[in-house]
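Worked example 4.2. Below are the chains of a multi-component assembly; read each line carefully before continuing.
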Amino acid sequence: MQSDNLVEIAGVAFGYGARPVLKGINLTARRGQVVAIMGSSGCGKTTLLRLIGGQIKPGQGTVRVAGESVAELDQNGLYRLRRKMGMLFQFGALFTDMSVFDNVAFQLREHTDLPEDAIRDLVLMKLNAVGLRGAAQLMPAELSGGMARRVALARAIALDPMLVMYDEPFAGLDPISLGVTGNLIRRLTDTLGLTSLVVTHDVQESLKIVDYVYFVSDGVIVAEGTADEIRASDLPYVHQFVHGEADGPVPFHYPARAYADDLGLGGGRNA
Amino acid sequence: MNKTVLDLWVGLFVVAGIAALLFLALKVGSMNTVNAADSYDVVARFENIGGLKARAPVKSAGVVVGRVDSIQFDTELYEAKVTIRVDKRYPFPRDTSAAILTSGLLGEQYIGLAAGGDSVMLKSGDTLKITQDAVVLENLIGQFLYGKAQEGSPQ
Amino acid sequence: MLKRALENLGNRTIQGVWRMGFATRFFFAVLMHSGTAFRRFGLTIREMYFTGVLSLIIILVSGLFVGMVLGLQGYETLQTYGSEEALGVLVALSLVRELGPVVAALLFASRAGSAITAEIGLMKATEQLSAMEMMAVDPIARVVAPRFWAGVISMPLLAALFSAMGVLGGYLVGVQLIGVDEGSFWAQMQSAVDFEQDILNGVLKSAVFGVAITAIALFEGYDAPPTAEGVSGATTRTVVTSSLAVLALDFVLTAFMFRGLN
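Applying the procedure described above to all three chains together yields the following C-alpha cells:
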C-alpha cells in the first residue's frame, strides 16, 4: 500500500549563497488534496516548489515525492519523476513559438510514441477541460492572461500527472478569471485524482478551494491548518495576512534607523 | 508558418548554397589540382630558381600541363631540386628541357617545358637534363652596365 | 583609491574566468546533447529557416554590392598598371579567401546571432526553459542544440552565396559596365583561384565562424539575466563578441592556411 502522503518535506533548509531562504520546513501533502502554501512575497514559496521539482537541491533535510528522495535522484530518475509532475508557472510560461495546441501536445510528442490523431484527441480533451478547445489554433500572444494560465494548466495535466504545482496561479487576474482558475484547480484535483500544491498570497480566493494551508514566514512554517481553522485563527501573523492589515508582525517599514535620526532631529544619538 | 512551406524554403536555401559552391568550384576556380594518380613526377635541377614557388604552373606552349610539387635545396651539388608533377595525359620526350620563365615583366614565375625529339618518353622519377635558370633582373642590369662600360673604355 | 581600482580589476578578472569556464562547459553540454538535433532533424530544419533563410536577403544584396565595389575599385587600381584583365582574379580571390567568409559572418552575427540571443534570453526570462525542464525535457537538447547545428550548417552556405553574388557583382561592373574583356576576366580568375587552397579553405573558415557565432549567441542568451536590460545587454554583447571573435579567428586561420606553403 502506498503511503498516503505524496509530498513529504522534512527539515529542509536552503539558501542562495550566504542568504538563507528556508530554515527548516516541515510539510506534507496528502494524495487528493489541494494544499496551499502562503506567505508574503519573497518568503521562499517558489523556492520550495523548485526544491520539490528537483531544480535545486536542499542544503539540509529531505524532500520526498511519492516515496523517492528528490535530491538523490540522478538526471534520468529526476526526469522520470518529473513526468509525473505538472507545474504551472507564474505567468504560464507558454512556448511563445508554438500554437496553443502544440503547447499542450508538447509533452505527449516528447515523451510518447502516440500517433498524431491520438495526440489530437488527448489535447482536445485537455483543452476542453479548461474550456479552451476553441482556442487550439491561437498563438500564446493572442491570449489574455487568464486564458494563458488555463492553457498552461491544460499543458501541465497533459500527461495525467499525480502532482500539480501552481506558482502564484492567481497573480494578476481579473475577478472572473480568478474564480474560473480557482474552480478549475479544485475540479481537476477531484476529477483527475491529482494532488495540488498551490503557492499563493491570494488568501480569499485560495481559502475557498484548499483543504489545508501552510503559512511560511521568514523561512519557517508559522501556522498550518484547514481553511476553517485558518479563518478562525487568532495568531497575529495569520490574522494580519488574512485580513490584509498594513502593519503587524510583518512590519510596514523596512528595518531602518529611528526616523528622527534619519531626519537629523535626533536628540541624543546623532550618528 | 506551415511546416511544409518552411521545409520548402530551407530546401531552396540549401540547394542555392550548394549551387553557389559549385559555381565557385567550377566557374570561379578550376579544379586543376593535379592528383598523384593521374600524373608523373620528374625532377629538374636549377642553379637559380629566382622567385619560383611550389604550386606554380608548369606550361608547355602556354598550356598548363602540371604544377611544381616541391622545391628543395641539394646540399651536395648546391643546386635547387624542383619536383614537377605533370599530368599523365601529356607525355614528354626524354630530352625535354625546362626553363624558369616569367609571365609578363613582373608577373609570377612558372616553368616552361620545351619538348625534344627523343622517341623515349619521360617516366616518373626521371631527371630533366637540360634546364635554364631564372633570369635575375639584377644580374641582367649588372651585365648591361658592365657591357656599356667596356664599350666606352677605348675612347 | 588605487586599492579600489585593483580590487575592481581583480574581481572582473575572476568573473571573466568564471564565465569563460561556464561557457566552455555549456559548449560541451551542447555537443554532448546534440543527438536530438540529428535524430529529429525537423527541429534543426526549422531553425535553419530562422537563421539561414531569413538571412538570405541581406547576404545576397550585400554580396552583390561588395562585388560591385570591388569591381570598380579594383579596376581603378589595376588600370594604372595596365593589367585590367586581372580584375577577375582580384575580385574572386578577395571574396573567396577573405571577404566572403568574414563579411558574411559579420552580417550573420548581427542578423541571426542577435536574434538567437534575444530568443533564448526571452525564453529564459519568461521561464519557458524552466517549464521545459519541469516537463522532463532537456532545454539544451531540445532548444539549444538544434539552433547550434542550424547555424553551423547555414554559415558556409551563406558565405558561398555571398562570394558567388560578389563575383557576379564584379562581373557586372567590370565586364558589362566598364568593358573588361570577358574571356580574360574568367580565364585569369580560373587559373589563379585554386579549389583546394582558396575555395575549400574559405568554406572551412566560414564553418569555424559559424561555430563561434552560434555558440556565443546561444551562450549569451542562456546566461542572460532574466530581465529586459539583461536580454538587451546580452544581445549587444553577442554582436560585439562574435564580431571580434570572427576577426580574430580569421587572422589565426589565415595564418595557418596561407602561410608557409613552400
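Take a moment to check your reading of the output against the notes. Residues 175-192 of chain A form the longest helix (18 residues). Strands of chain A lie at 5-16, 19-30, 34-38, 60-65, 68-69, 85-88, 163-167, 195-200, 212-217, 220-225.
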